Amino acid sequence: MITVLAGGTGSIKLVRGLAACESDVNVVCNVGDNMWMYEMYICPDIDTTIYGLADLLDRDRGWGIRKDTFNFLRQMEAFGEETWFRIGDRDAATHLMRTNMLKNGKNLSDITRWMCGRFAINVNVMPATDSSVETIISTKKGDMHIQEYWVKHRGREPVTGIRYEGAERARPNPDVSRAIQDSKAVIIAPGNPLTSIGPMLKLQSIRKDLSRARAKTIAVSPIIGNKAVSGPAAKYMEAAGIEVSALGVAKMYAHACSSIVVDTKDKALVNKLSSIDMRVHATRIVMRNRQAENALAAFVLKQAR
Ligand code: FO1
Fold first, then answer.
1. Domains, the chain, ranges and CATH?
2. pLDDT tier at 197 (50, 70, 90 boundaries)?
3. Any ligand 1 atom below 6 A from CB of 199
4. Which end of the chain is less crowded, N or C, counting CB atoms within 10 A of the terminal residue's CB?
């Protein structure tokens, strides 16, 4: 059994590769991006994971369902509602089912397990916690939910701070603790360290589980040189005063993992990383197709053993 910590559009490729290599896979998903819209509860990282594993994900956008239509959203616009968050018609069905089940007393873990069954995927996808945790971005113009900052305002304002509202009082998810404990390897996917992986590392229970599992935990860097492989990771790292490099990522994760996979271009970091008690493995980490996803997954698993 293996467990992957994943979030955002940067993680799903490795998750898919790992699921192709291993038969018993748990994916712990970030919940900091979750939000309410039109009375529906939207969980982008859980959905990206499920759609990606079910081969439904829109590969170009990196989110939502391939070839989805947007008639519902067009009608909302006609009603004068805000439509900056592009919810597709089929995607809306996922949010609606989830919301109805929440209203009927189910928790997010149960609902996510049910969704995995409905989408016929044999990977255990689980939320990092069933409690509400929201990533809040601070700017000079005020604080806003990460989706508002990144999608509505297109990440234009400089970031002055990042916080995870609700993280301190979030209830531990026992499935996550069991998965981390019982796995032969734990992998931190190459998601945004501050907004995809960071909210999970902030949860006390996961911090504790990972520090106990440090020897078998390996991370994959989302940074090559001083640039993110994709998305706004560099912007958030700079704002948090973290060096934008695989070394910066390694330092951030040092309490949680004992090794990190970096790109061959960052091979020179090997010496620097040993000073923070971390092993470093170099390979090509950009995944442009399924073959590259499987190759990186196989490499990571080999190092983790
Ligand atoms: N990202 C965008 O940039 N624009 C969107 O309109 C948008 C809609 C959307 C709908 C459902 C969903 O599950 C994800 C969606 N995303 C959209 C992606 C999302 O904002 C982020 O990529 C993730 O939250 C990153 O973790």
1. 2-133+167-304 (3.40.50.10680)
2. very high
3. no
4. C
